[in-house]
Structure formats: structure tokens, C-alpha cells
Write a structure and sequence with these properties.
The structure is a single chain. By secondary structure, this protein is α/β, with parallel strands linked by helices. The chain has nine helices and 16 strands. The protein has a six-stranded parallel β-sheet, sandwiched between helices. Strands 3-2-1-5-4 form a five-stranded antiparallel β-sheet.
Amino acid sequence: MLTTSSKLKELQDIVNAYDKAAGAGRQTALATVVLVEGSSYRRAGARMLVTEDGELTGAISGGCLEGDALRKARLAMAQSKPMLVTYDTTDDDDAKFGVGLGCNGIIHILIEPLFPGSEISPINLFKQFLSKREQVVLITIFSLSNRQATQPGTCLLMDSIEQTNGSIPDNEIQQAVLADARDVLKNGNSVTKTYVYGNGYTCFIELLQPAVSLVIFGAGNDAIPMVQFAAVLGWHVSLVDGRANYAVPERFPLAKKIIISKPGPALSNLKFDDRSAVVLMTHNYNYDLAILRQLLPIQLPYVASLGPKKRLQRMLDEIQEEGINITPPQLNSVYGPAGIDIGSENADEIALSIIAEIQAVLNKKTVNSLRDKTSVHNRHAEQVVQQTVVIDEITPYAK
């Protein structure tokens, strides 16, 4: 399944590669998985940019479709015409396609030549989405019933306030498509819908969400792998610490923002939304307590505390003793100990388990969180083996 994070990073990589190619005067085409029937390595929304000289950015499969898609993309560029390509791997003898998929599915891929002078192009729509931190709906239209017909392609973006950029080429289905786009924007589910009237177009109505915003309080050595893992996923990482000698770009070159602040004013330099996650790992009880006190009313989807469960419980008890009511939804969004149960020991493994837990929570997936265990470290008593050294009695040398 294509996650929000991987999709967004893929789009950013594609935009960067397109700008580079366009600057060098090279032709490009965009390949998009628009419909999957059955099983496949990538799902609808996977994309790949192809340049005329064979450079590929992104992916539409596990590596088995890319070669053939490159040949098709070159043909589409030569003809200056979008085309729909279908790979049917439900036949056990998929070797006849020359791609050896083994996925047991039907994958429909739309290939669109990209033209730098075009006002409404997929790249411009991607750039609009990437320029703001908001969810949008992207509409891609193609014809399954008649592959020789015009393939409109990626044609419209609807932003979070339902304003649109682009147009629906078929007036007969315009209102229906826009209504479906508003529904996807409201309910947060991408859909593929076939319109059986008019030209029989199929519409991929896709929800795009902004990158995860990860805020890490604490710039110790254990925060380094956290920042690195998050950056690989394309997350935007902000790092906050009161120690100026710890929170420096040299230690955290992949962090988007580094804030040196005491806990009181720390949140004034940050913005939170429903794609924000916070990890408290300063190893300073009073600092973490002050931050947690401010975070609870915001009702974020994920707030984690590094360290044992009793440490977190002590903080929650202190906050309640101050007369602050902690609601069940607020408590449900707090995770401590942070991470999922993968048997983590060192800083890298702990970072991996926390990043995985954030991914699961934001995607509403169920995992075995450490906070739900009664005991995190089930350590067996170490067996101490004592070896008895027997020294042979030495007979004194007789003179």
C-alpha cells in the first residue's frame, strides 16, 4: 500500500527531477498507476517521472514494470499524446509480457507527456499541493472503454476550501466529479469511479495529505536517529531543546527547524495540526512535564514520552493535581513508553519503533504499542556461572 508519507516524498522527488530535466531541455513523461484490479506491488497513486534519456524518478512497481513503461513513455513523448497501458498478470504465464510480475493483478498505468509551457499540468498541480500544508483532492481522468480516445489525464486539483485549479474536460460529468471530490475531501478516502454515461470516463479521485510534522523535544544523541528515520520518510522535523550546544545544525542537518527555548515559550514557535506528532525525549522531567501540560489541550493525534510508564503516569498525576482535567480523548493520544513492541534496545531500534508507531497511529492501524504492556522489559535473571579453579598441590622440591 502506498502511504501518505511515501506518496508525498515521491511527488517532491518528481517535481525536483522535472525541474532539473526541463532546465536542461529534456522531454519528460509522467507514469501514474490509476487503477489496480487484484494484487500489485504498488497501488493507485504511485508515480514515476521518465526523461527522454531514460532517467527514472519514483516507481510504479517493484522494478518489473519500469523497463516496459520507459519504452511506452518514449512513444508517448514522440507522439505528444497520453496513453493508457494495461498489464494483466492474472495469467500464470505472465512471462509473455516480458515483465515477470507475479502479482496476480491487473495494473492500469496512464502515461502523460509533460509540456513546460502548459498552464495546467500535473507538475503545476503537484507544486500547488506541495506549497501549502493542507490536504487536497487530485483528479485524474482516463478512458478504459476506448484506449484510442483522448486521455484527459491529471486535470484538476481541489484545495481544502473546495477551490479548484484546472477543469473537467467532459461537461456532462463535471458536476458529478466535483461532488465526489468534495466527498473525498470531507471523508478522507480516495476512490476510483467509472462514469457509464457520456464518454464512459473513469476518474481517479485521489486524496493527498501534507507531510507528517514531527516535533522532537530533546536534542540528545538518541534524537539523531529519530531525525534521520523521519527525514527518509519525507517528514518535516522540528527539534526543540533548551541547550544551545546540543541543538545545532551540525548535529541535526536533516531537521527543518531547530528551536532553542525554555519550555514556557517553546510552543509559540510551532504550528500543529492533525498530521502532527510529538515525542518528548529531553530526559529532563520538569521540561517534559511543562511541555506535556501545554500539549494536552491541543488534542494532537500522537504525543509520546520516552522512558518508563511510571514516569509518564507521574507527570499526568501532577497535571491533574494542579486542577487540570485530562479528558479520555486527550489521554488516548498519549503514548508511553513510546514505540511499538519490537524488542528495541539501542537508540536506533528505539527510534525505529517510535517512527513505526507514529506511522500506524496516523494511518489508523492497530499495532502492539509498548504503552499497552504491563511490563516492557521482561528480563530474566542473569545466570552467574562461577568456575572453580583447581590448583594442583605442588610438592616442595626436595633438596
